[in-house]
Amino acid sequence: MSTNDLLEMAQRVADQAKAGEQVEAYVSRMRDTSVRVYEGEIEHLVSAQSEGIGIRVIDGGRVGFAYAGALDERTVAEALAEARDNVGFGTAHPDVALAVPDGVAVADLDLWDDSLASCPTDHKVALAKQTEAIALGADPRVRPEDTSYEDSLAEAAVASSTGIAAFGRETACYVVASLLATVGDETMTGFGYSIGRNVDQLDADAAAQMAVERATRLLGATKPSSRRLTVVLDPWVTAQFLGILSATLNGESVLKGRSLFANRVGESVASPLISLVDDPTYPLAFSASTVDGEGLATRRNTLIEGGVLKGFVQNSYSGRRSGGASTGNATRGSFKSSPGCGCLALALTPGTRSQAELVAGVDDGILVQGVSGMHSGVNPVSGDFSTGAEGLLISGGQLGAPVREFTIASTLQRMLHDVIEVGGDVQWLPMSAAGVSLVVGDITMSGA
């Protein structure tokens, strides 16, 4: 099936809507490669292709959904009939309806690279092996945990009886090296990565160097004494915090009473230094896309500006129920699921200084380079968080001794207000949030 055929099939299904009902078809095709090597040998190699269709039928405020993992006409017809049958099991709600065109133009982004589709598997395996070899040759204290190469080529079309007709496609790939560093009886772990739209954009040297540095820098770490101090978050850690924050800025979470920002639009919720934007139209974002899961054009949405809460991300249902409209943030895990809602490419507006410059301005603090238990340690309603961490102490503007086995604790609300500076070292990571160094004052560190 060709690219045009995906949209044509979706449109044929949508055109079968009966009087009084709405029909939406989401047709997708994906090809993935996953390689894992260990000590120069292939441990795991999978190349898979999947395609399918998800169909929503809405009648009388009730939703029926069904999907099929094949795209032949008979199977698709059966899926449509099943979706219609499932309408009878739904609960009617006046805000249930499909998205309608809203006039927002689709961004002109080049997110597809044909060279990834034609890249030989041998080349992908060789890249993983090369990354591991560079890392192992850089420091005698390290040994491999595993090194992986992953890629994805995704295409999707959405059409509905309400006038939606959209198609989008993206390629993405990355290489990740995971290492163990050992001195005596002590062993620490570390990882490094490189991302791109094609294999030629991946930097094996950079991924290996990062992995070696992260694996070795905490050797000899001790448990620090408890106190309140200034924290500098590494970009990787900041991105994880943004991932937690994104769930609280989700219109669905607000409707369900699961957001600490409910009923606070227009209020100051963070330091004036904080501006937070969800922008999947930014081409360097790993999760960039031109259309959302309902076929609407993605767009730049400012959520916090100068510390003031401006709004939430919405799909068509949550937007309508909230008295507004979709912000182009419908999400889908695959053709097997109906649309959800979420941030697509979240990032802080960066400052100008490097991490080294930020550290130089801290008298007593800690550079947090890794956290554990993030999702279980944060309450999205109260904002309370306590998470395990590791990093390097800062004294007089200089990085000092490595420390681990401590926790950092505060609330998301207080942490946002206590931001002292946002770094300029933006890093787009293999996730839906970008990282940047972040200086936060007055955080509780609990250790010895």
Write the layout of secondary structure elements.
Blueprint: H1 3-14, E1 21-38, E2 41-59, E3 62-68, H2 73-87, H3 114-118, H4 121-138, E4 142-160, E5 165-183, E6 186-196, H5 204-216, E7 227-233, H6 235-248, H7 251-255, E8 276-278, E9 301-305, E10 308-309, H8 316-321, E11 330-331, E12 340-341, E13 346-348, H9 355-360, E14 364-372, E15 384-395, E16 398-411, H10 412-417, E17 419-422, E18 427-428, E19 434-435, E20 438-446
Parallel strand pairs: 7-14
Antiparallel strand pairs: 1-2, 1-4, 2-3, 4-5, 5-6, 7-20, 8-9, 8-13, 9-10, 11-12, 14-15, 15-16, 16-20, 17-20, 18-19
Molecular structure report:
The strands form five sheets. The protein has a six-stranded antiparallel sheet. It has a five-stranded mixed barrel with strand order 7-14-15-16-20. A four-stranded antiparallel sheet has the order 10-9-8-13, covered by helices on one side. The chain is globular, with a radius of gyration of 24 Å. With 448 residues, it is of the alpha+beta class. The protein contains ten helices and 20 strands. Strand 11 and strand 12 form a beta hairpin. The protein starts with a helix and ends with a strand.
